[in-house]
Amino acid sequence: MPSPGAERWVPHDGGIRKLRAQLRECRGCELWEDAEQAVPGAGPVRSRMMLVGETPGDHEDKEGQVFVGPAGHLLDKALVEAGIERSEVYLTNAVKHFRFERQGKRRIHKTPSAGQITACRPWLVRELEIVKPELVVVMGSVAAKALLGAAFRVTKERGKRVELPDGRAAVATVHPSAVVRSDEFRRDFERFVDDLRVAVDLLG
């Protein structure tokens, strides 16, 4: 049976507090059944820049906060090097519940399916409507599928100015977790920072 999608749970009025409250009730796909909780975005409303990742990880699922695990710590360092204050940007994910598989006692991240990405997309669309960022940094393939379509390839288009379907400026890059796992860490970290600097330059 196909997922009903999040549309029926997403409020079409009110602000970010109402959105976060409603997110806790979402049953738009089956991921809520095993995850600890839905993880909302964080950051000031009316941020000029929004960074969109893929899904919560194990740490985020347990703590209910976005980007607090290893990828989040790396992102913090990259933001500093790029001259971006984390407190001034809005951070969120394309999918709000943690998808994982168990290996013994460990919960290992598993990439969301196309159906799960589609089901969760209304939350992301509403965040964009509320925050109204001038520019969106799209981090990783799941975020790219949600915002730029299935045919978009981050590896080919990273670090360039692209446009979302609504005409909003965007820059695509890898997800920070890919840098954490990289065998060429220093090189890939510097490339990631360079992509973030492109976003800074576009904002002027």
Automatic annotation (TrEMBL):
Keywords linked to the UniProt accession: 4Fe-4S, DNA damage, DNA repair, Hydrolase, Iron, Iron-sulfur, Metal-binding, Nucleotidyltransferase, Transferase
GO molecular function: DNA-directed DNA polymerase activity
Pfam families associated with the record: UDG
Boundaries of every Uracil-DNA glycosylase-like domain copy: 40-197
InterPro entries tied to this protein: UDG_Type-4/5, Ura-DNA_glyco_family4, Uracil-DNA_glycosylase-like, Uracil-DNA_glycosylase-like_sf
PANTHER family reported in the protein's UniProt record: TYPE-4 URACIL-DNA GLYCOSYLASE, TYPE-5 URACIL-DNA GLYCOSYLASE
Family according to the record: Belongs to the uracil-DNA glycosylase (UDG) superfamily. Type 4 (UDGa) family.
Protein name: Type-4 uracil-DNA glycosylase
Species per Swiss-Prot/TrEMBL record: Kribbella aluminosa
